[in-house]
Prior knowledge:
The chain is an alpha/beta fold. The protein is built from six helices and five strands; from the N terminus they run H-E-H-E-H-E-H-E-H-E-H. It has two domains: 1-31; 40-140, Rhodanese-like domain (Oxidized Rhodanese, domain 1).
Amino acid sequence: MSKLRYTQLRISHLLLQLVLVSFTSHALAEKDEPKFIPGTTKVTAEEVLDLATEISDLIIVDSRIHADRKQGYIEGSVSLPDLETNCASLAGIIPRKISPVLFYCNGIKCGRSVIASKIALGCGYKNIYWFRGGFSEWQGKKYPFVKE
Length: 148
């Protein structure tokens, strides 16, 4: 193989690596969930505490899978993984379409609360709060939680 051909192959290989690294970085960035969900109110951990104090009938839905919930969960939350969330399962825990409901999951890289919130919106629920920081923000603030 000539030096020229070897150099061309090497350059092609390096360009391919750059493209793959760029694509992978973009794909990883895409995993960060949206900064907001139209139709919901995004809240922080502090605002979750305020809501729980101010709204006595607030329903807090933990959208994580059962294995994640075993690591701990916000006290009073109801377990309804996103994979089990549909209009019927929501109706079983949320009495009215205007009932205040808050969805959370593991944190900003977890899409389960995004999915559950969007399903709730599609089912006609109107008073939805989304805790984007989720359980990782809750733990980071050293707020109390229940662990099985």
